[in-house]
Every structure is written in structure tokens, then in C-alpha cells.
Amino acid sequence: MTEFLRCRKQNHDDNVLMFRLLVFVESSSKRKVVWHKMKKIKKEINGKKAEAVVKACYDNDIKFIKLWFTDILGFLKSFSITKEELEKAFTEGMGFDGSSIQGFTRIDESDMIAIPDPDTLSTIPWRPTENGVVRMFADIYNPDRTPFEGDPRYILKRNLEYAKEKFGYDHFYVGPELEYFYFKNSSGTELLDKGGYFDLTPRDEAIDLRRDTVLALEQMGIKVEYCHHEVAPSQHEIDLRYTDALRMADNVMTYRLVVKEIAYQHDVYATFMPKPLIGQNGSGMHTHMSCFKGSKNAFFDPKGQYFLSKDAQQFVAGLLKYVPESTTILNQWVNSYKRLVTGYEAPVYLSWAQRNRSDLIRVPMYKPGKEHATRIELRSPDPSCNPYLTFAVLLRAGLKGMEEKLVVPEPVEENVYHMPEAERKRRKIGMLPGSLYEALQLTEKSQLVKETLGDHVFTEFVENKKVEWDNYRKFVTNYELEKYLPIL
Predict the structure, then answer these.
(1) Which of 82, 322, 395, 429 could crosslink 424 through cysteines, CB 3.0-4.6 Å?
(2) What are phi and psi of 401, to 5 degrees?
């Protein structure tokens, strides 16, 4: 117990503390006793946090509390309670009908309970300050208080715990770069500007849009590193400072709502659709990842090749092997594959490099004194994914590379787009799936994705994507009408 108290003073995560304490307990019987004690201690800690949240709401004229969660596709769901119901929400949870939520439950087993996470309390800055509004993310439970296996937030938590227990990783840090477009409205693609990468154009409407978005994010406790114009006209990017994967997934959900809300306030429309414009770059979500043991970056080794540890190299190899079968999760829409084509800075081939941005994976070159910045960047995900599921499958794909002790191939610093096909075959450089259908064929057979998501979400997700592909397959597009109708 003294080890736990010592770690508490260092502000370690309570789940990590429970696991670390168990390491010191040898017998299984004693371990069970300690585990139950630790759960009780954590419950008391969370109880104190909950009490503080309730008090803060009463002290700061907060009337409404929005509870947020997502369906399996990553669409944000919400319902509101008043502060008078908040204490009950923490102790008993708030019941709701889960049968109407995509991928949750059937109508005959629809009762669900939402319990707010006090660590996620945040103001909603565009709402009134009098009788104000705050939000918290909620964890979803079954009526018997067991975690609901269809809750994407729980799926990420479960996989983070797997990384802690099996590999000793206290932190899986993630830093995504979400790109998006501004248009005049949601019914078309009329541009706000014709700028390009890093362009500063006079009277650019998006300057104020980005400014107000960054200010709103910071008011909600989300740290921002950069904001700038992207390559395509009317395309923009606001980069969030890296943090633990669970908090970052919450931040991504918040970010997407804030971007759209601020755009709405300025009478324009923001979209995270991967490829809204023909002949222009699409929007990606380049995702930077690193694993830490305590304060030590497990991906850095001063004597390792490319300054990468053995763990990091095997993590890269795992991503190269398992990203193709995980692509349905990372790029879940029919439109996602219009972005993953050559010529528009999106990855197509399964290769990695340090400086080459045409590869699927980039490992930024080491800078002396910046060991903490050693990381792996995956460039294929798009910003319309479910971040909880995406971060979970990326983590497990990398860990699978470590479990199988995979050997990372040599980096490809040449432009893979311009490499002759014979050379790509000689170097065994494969390709990402070219359509949602191709991706589904791989995912449906993937034991890795099934283990990561669990049977319930795996089945629901795959079936949902089959329906989407079938609907798309039967739809007659403008391309077909324009090309074939005049001649056939």
C-alpha cells in the first residue's frame, strides 16, 4: 500500500497504480484482496471528483449538464440533465433506450445506463453563462453495471489496459492532425477562398473562423499547437497537442463539433468529408503515436537504428502488416477511398520513411535533446473515423508487431508514387485497399480487428459497412450519366 501512496503523490493515473501495486503482490488470493481494495479506493477518488463537480455546478450557476457519447460510427450523441439530477447520475447513472443508437442493442434488450466521467467536465463556451451549460463524456453500462461492450469509449479503455498489463505501457500518446473544408453551405462546395498551403490571403474569412475555433477549444481545456491553411482551396487544419489516447479521442469528438459550431455562427459550413472536391487533395487525419513507460519514451533508443527502440521498430512493422485489414475502421466511408489515390499526397503504398511524406508511415528524424518527441506518424486515417475505434486498432496493430517480433523493412525514401511497378514488387511494397469493398473483404477475415473491437461491435460495424457498400453499388452517379448516357 505504501507503493500506491507514493505513486499517488506523483499524480499517476489510478488504473496504472492499481496494476503496479498488483505486481508487488505474489499470491493470487492476496492479489484478489488488494484488487478489491484498490477498486474501492478508486471509487472513493472518483466519488470525491464527482462531489467537486456537483459543487462546481452549484457555485457557478450551471443549470444543464450534457452527457456525450458516440455510436459505433463515431457520431456524437447527447442528452441533457439538470444539476439537480447530477448526483444521481454519478451514483446510479441515467437510463436511456439504447435500441435507437447505431450498433448498440436490440429493442428487446434496450436498457442502457450512462454514467458521466468527472474528469471530462468542460464548459460549452457558446452557450449562455446565466443558467449555464457544461458537458461530460459518459461511459455506457448494462443494467447490471457491467461495461457495455458496444461502447466505443470502453473498447479503447479495454485496449489501453491490455497495453499496460502486457507491455507495461502507462501511456499511449496520440497527436492527430485533422483537416477539413469550409464551404458556403451544406448543399454544395462553393469555396470561401482559393488559398494553398500556409497561404495568408487578405480578407480571408477563415482567419476569423480558425481564431474563434482555437479560442473555443482552449476554453474547453483542449490545447492547440498550430492552425493554418491547407493545400486545397478552402481547406484548413487545426492541430491538437498530443495527449493520452482516451482524452484525445474525447478531444477529437469535441473538436469536430466545435469546428462545425463556429462555422455555423459565421454562416458557413464545415465538413470532415474525406474527399469533397474532384481534382484536389482530400482531408486526412495524420496520427502521431508514441508509447511511454512512466516518463520514458519506449520508442526511443540512442543506440538503435534510426534512434528507434526495438519496440518502436516492431510497432512500425505491425502497422505495415495489419493496417490493410484495419482500414475499414480508419477509413470507414465509400468516399474515404476517393482520397486514397495517387497524386494527392495521400498514402497508397505500404512503406515507411523518415522524411518521405508519400509513405504510409513517417518516423520524424530524431533531434538531439528531443527524446520525448520520438514518434510514429500514420498518414492513412481520415477525420471522419470513429477516433475511439481508430486509436484502439492502431495500438493493437502495433502491439501485434511486438508480439510477433516482426522485422521492419528498410525505409523507402524515394517517391513511391513514381516508382515502377516492377521495383515495388521487387521490394515487396504492397498497397492499401482501393475501395470500401476491398477493405471489408480484409476486415471481415481479421482476427486482430475482431479481438480489438469485440464480437458485438465487430459484427455490427461490418454489417453496417456492407449495407453502405450495397447502397452505393446500386446508386447511379452523375459520372455514369454524363459519360454513358450520350453514347449508349
Answers:
(1) 429
(2) -60, -35
